[in-house]
Amino acid sequence: MYSSAHSGSNESNLIAFPMAATSKTALLVQVDPFQSEVWSTALASQSITVIKEGADVDLSNMLGQMASAGLTLPDLIIVDMATEGMNPFAFCRFCREQHPSVKVLLTNSTQTQIAESEQRWAMSQGAQDLLPAFQTDSLLTDLLTALGRTSGVLGLPNLDQQALIQILPKLLEPKAEATETVALPAPSVAEPSVPPAPKAQRTYRGRPY
Questions:
Q1: pLDDT digits (tens, 9 = 90+) for 49-86
Q2: Which positions carry 4-aspartylphosphate (predicted)?
Q3: In 3D, which of 114, 98, 110, 182 has the Cα closest to residue 146?
Protein backbone atom coordinates (compact mmCIF):
# COMPACT_ATOMS: atom_id res chain seq x y z
CA MET A 1 0.00 0.00 0.00
CA TYR A 2 1.23 3.44 -0.88
CA SER A 3 2.80 5.50 1.87
CA SER A 4 2.87 9.24 1.34
CA ALA A 5 6.27 10.48 0.22
CA HIS A 6 5.51 14.13 -0.31
CA SER A 7 6.87 16.72 2.07
CA GLY A 8 4.86 18.95 4.35
CA SER A 9 1.83 16.70 4.63
CA ASN A 10 0.58 14.16 7.08
CA GLU A 11 1.46 10.55 6.54
CA SER A 12 -1.10 8.44 4.71
CA ASN A 13 -3.54 6.83 7.08
CA LEU A 14 -4.89 3.54 5.80
CA ILE A 15 -8.17 2.68 7.49
CA ALA A 16 -7.91 -0.79 8.98
CA PHE A 17 -10.92 -2.74 7.78
CA PRO A 18 -11.31 -6.28 6.43
CA MET A 19 -9.79 -7.00 3.01
CA ALA A 20 -11.74 -5.27 0.28
CA ALA A 21 -13.67 -7.72 -1.84
CA THR A 22 -14.16 -5.05 -4.50
CA SER A 23 -10.42 -4.35 -4.97
CA LYS A 24 -11.34 -0.68 -5.28
CA THR A 25 -9.40 2.07 -3.52
CA ALA A 26 -10.58 5.56 -2.63
CA LEU A 27 -8.25 8.37 -1.58
CA LEU A 28 -10.04 10.70 0.82
CA VAL A 29 -9.20 14.35 1.49
CA GLN A 30 -11.69 16.15 3.74
CA VAL A 31 -11.27 19.33 5.76
CA ASP A 32 -14.03 18.69 8.30
CA PRO A 33 -13.40 15.79 10.75
CA PHE A 34 -17.06 14.71 10.82
CA GLN A 35 -17.29 14.61 7.03
CA SER A 36 -14.06 12.62 6.90
CA GLU A 37 -15.31 10.11 9.47
CA VAL A 38 -18.64 9.62 7.68
CA TRP A 39 -16.99 9.12 4.31
CA SER A 40 -14.31 6.71 5.54
CA THR A 41 -16.74 4.61 7.58
CA ALA A 42 -19.34 4.50 4.80
CA LEU A 43 -16.83 3.57 2.10
CA ALA A 44 -15.36 0.82 4.25
CA SER A 45 -18.87 -0.56 4.86
CA GLN A 46 -19.03 -1.16 1.10
CA SER A 47 -15.67 -3.01 1.16
CA ILE A 48 -13.83 -0.13 -0.47
CA THR A 49 -10.26 0.37 0.74
CA VAL A 50 -9.83 3.89 2.11
CA ILE A 51 -6.67 5.98 2.28
CA LYS A 52 -6.98 9.26 4.19
CA GLU A 53 -4.70 12.19 3.46
CA GLY A 54 -4.32 15.49 5.27
CA ALA A 55 -5.86 18.63 3.81
CA ASP A 56 -2.38 19.99 3.04
CA VAL A 57 -1.55 17.22 0.57
CA ASP A 58 -0.38 18.14 -2.93
CA LEU A 59 -2.51 15.66 -4.85
CA SER A 60 -1.08 16.41 -8.29
CA ASN A 61 2.47 15.88 -7.06
CA MET A 62 1.43 12.78 -5.14
CA LEU A 63 -0.13 11.13 -8.19
CA GLY A 64 2.94 11.98 -10.26
CA GLN A 65 5.22 10.35 -7.70
CA MET A 66 3.06 7.25 -7.52
CA ALA A 67 2.96 6.91 -11.30
CA SER A 68 6.74 7.39 -11.58
CA ALA A 69 7.28 4.70 -8.94
CA GLY A 70 5.01 2.28 -10.78
CA LEU A 71 2.49 2.19 -7.95
CA THR A 72 -1.20 1.53 -8.51
CA LEU A 73 -3.15 4.76 -8.51
CA PRO A 74 -6.38 5.04 -6.52
CA ASP A 75 -9.58 4.35 -8.42
CA LEU A 76 -11.32 7.36 -6.91
CA ILE A 77 -10.28 10.57 -5.18
CA ILE A 78 -12.92 12.21 -2.99
CA VAL A 79 -11.73 15.73 -2.28
CA ASP A 80 -13.29 18.64 -0.41
CA MET A 81 -13.51 21.87 -2.39
CA ALA A 82 -12.81 23.72 0.88
CA THR A 83 -9.26 22.33 0.91
CA GLU A 84 -7.00 25.34 1.39
CA GLY A 85 -4.65 26.29 -1.42
CA MET A 86 -6.22 23.94 -3.95
CA ASN A 87 -8.03 24.68 -7.20
CA PRO A 88 -10.42 21.71 -7.37
CA PHE A 89 -11.43 22.30 -10.97
CA ALA A 90 -7.82 22.55 -12.13
CA PHE A 91 -7.14 19.27 -10.34
CA CYS A 92 -10.08 17.62 -12.10
CA ARG A 93 -8.74 18.76 -15.46
CA PHE A 94 -5.27 17.52 -14.50
CA CYS A 95 -6.57 14.05 -13.69
CA ARG A 96 -8.66 13.92 -16.84
CA GLU A 97 -5.63 14.74 -18.97
CA GLN A 98 -2.77 13.08 -17.08
CA HIS A 99 -4.41 10.22 -15.16
CA PRO A 100 -7.72 9.38 -16.88
CA SER A 101 -8.12 6.16 -14.88
CA VAL A 102 -8.43 8.18 -11.66
CA LYS A 103 -11.94 9.46 -11.06
CA VAL A 104 -12.51 12.59 -8.97
CA LEU A 105 -15.57 13.17 -6.83
CA LEU A 106 -15.82 16.67 -5.39
CA THR A 107 -17.53 17.50 -2.11
CA ASN A 108 -18.21 20.81 -0.40
CA SER A 109 -18.15 20.63 3.40
CA THR A 110 -19.39 24.22 3.65
CA GLN A 111 -22.64 23.71 1.72
CA THR A 112 -25.68 21.58 2.51
CA GLN A 113 -27.13 22.10 -0.96
CA ILE A 114 -25.49 22.25 -4.37
CA ALA A 115 -26.99 24.32 -7.15
CA GLU A 116 -27.56 22.47 -10.41
CA SER A 117 -25.41 25.02 -12.24
CA GLU A 118 -22.50 24.34 -9.84
CA GLN A 119 -22.88 20.62 -10.34
CA ARG A 120 -22.91 20.93 -14.13
CA TRP A 121 -19.83 23.15 -14.08
CA ALA A 122 -17.90 20.73 -11.85
CA MET A 123 -18.74 17.82 -14.13
CA SER A 124 -17.75 19.81 -17.21
CA GLN A 125 -14.31 20.27 -15.61
CA GLY A 126 -13.85 16.54 -15.17
CA ALA A 127 -15.46 15.78 -11.80
CA GLN A 128 -17.78 12.80 -11.60
CA ASP A 129 -20.09 14.81 -9.37
CA LEU A 130 -20.23 17.55 -6.74
CA LEU A 131 -21.88 16.51 -3.48
CA PRO A 132 -22.94 18.60 -0.46
CA ALA A 133 -21.94 18.02 3.15
CA PHE A 134 -23.52 15.23 5.19
CA GLN A 135 -26.07 16.42 7.75
CA THR A 136 -26.88 14.57 10.95
CA ASP A 137 -30.64 15.04 10.64
CA SER A 138 -30.72 13.44 7.18
CA LEU A 139 -27.64 11.26 7.36
CA LEU A 140 -29.12 8.02 6.03
CA THR A 141 -30.63 9.76 3.01
CA ASP A 142 -27.37 11.62 2.40
CA LEU A 143 -25.39 8.38 2.67
CA LEU A 144 -27.63 6.54 0.24
CA THR A 145 -27.25 9.35 -2.28
CA ALA A 146 -23.48 9.78 -1.88
CA LEU A 147 -22.59 6.09 -1.76
CA GLY A 148 -24.99 5.29 -4.57
CA ARG A 149 -23.16 7.83 -6.70
CA THR A 150 -19.79 6.51 -5.57
CA SER A 151 -20.71 2.92 -6.41
CA GLY A 152 -21.83 4.02 -9.84
CA VAL A 153 -18.55 5.83 -10.49
CA LEU A 154 -16.56 2.77 -9.43
CA GLY A 155 -18.75 0.40 -11.40
CA LEU A 156 -19.72 -1.58 -8.31
CA PRO A 157 -22.81 -3.79 -8.06
CA ASN A 158 -25.73 -3.13 -5.76
CA LEU A 159 -25.23 -0.78 -2.82
CA ASP A 160 -25.23 -2.56 0.55
CA GLN A 161 -27.89 -0.43 2.22
CA GLN A 162 -28.02 -2.64 5.31
CA ALA A 163 -24.34 -1.96 5.97
CA LEU A 164 -25.01 1.77 5.83
CA ILE A 165 -27.88 1.45 8.29
CA GLN A 166 -25.64 -0.47 10.70
CA ILE A 167 -23.02 2.28 10.85
CA LEU A 168 -25.52 5.05 11.65
CA PRO A 169 -25.49 4.65 15.46
CA LYS A 170 -21.71 4.95 15.57
CA LEU A 171 -21.71 8.04 13.36
CA LEU A 172 -24.50 9.76 15.26
CA GLU A 173 -23.44 9.03 18.82
CA PRO A 174 -22.46 12.19 20.68
CA LYS A 175 -18.77 12.68 21.10
CA ALA A 176 -17.64 12.98 24.68
CA GLU A 177 -15.98 16.31 25.19
CA ALA A 178 -12.76 16.18 27.07
CA THR A 179 -13.08 18.01 30.34
CA GLU A 180 -10.02 19.58 31.82
CA THR A 181 -9.68 19.36 35.56
CA VAL A 182 -8.11 22.45 37.03
CA ALA A 183 -6.36 21.87 40.30
CA LEU A 184 -7.32 24.62 42.71
CA PRO A 185 -4.69 25.74 45.19
CA ALA A 186 -5.26 24.56 48.74
CA PRO A 187 -6.68 27.29 50.96
CA SER A 188 -4.01 28.93 53.03
CA VAL A 189 -4.57 29.12 56.75
CA ALA A 190 -3.07 32.22 58.33
CA GLU A 191 -1.24 31.32 61.47
CA PRO A 192 -1.99 33.58 64.45
CA SER A 193 0.65 36.19 64.94
CA VAL A 194 2.75 35.65 68.01
CA PRO A 195 3.35 38.88 69.98
CA PRO A 196 7.00 39.67 70.45
CA ALA A 197 8.46 38.68 73.77
CA PRO A 198 8.70 41.63 76.18
CA LYS A 199 12.14 43.02 76.62
CA ALA A 200 13.76 42.32 79.97
CA GLN A 201 13.74 45.35 82.25
CA ARG A 202 17.26 46.40 83.02
CA THR A 203 17.96 47.89 86.45
CA TYR A 204 20.91 49.48 88.16
CA ARG A 205 20.96 49.50 91.91
CA GLY A 206 17.25 48.73 91.96
CA ARG A 207 16.31 51.47 89.50
CA PRO A 208 15.23 50.75 85.94
CA TYR A 209 17.12 52.36 83.11
A1: 999 999 999 999 999 999 999 999 999 999 999 998 89
A2: 80
A3: 114
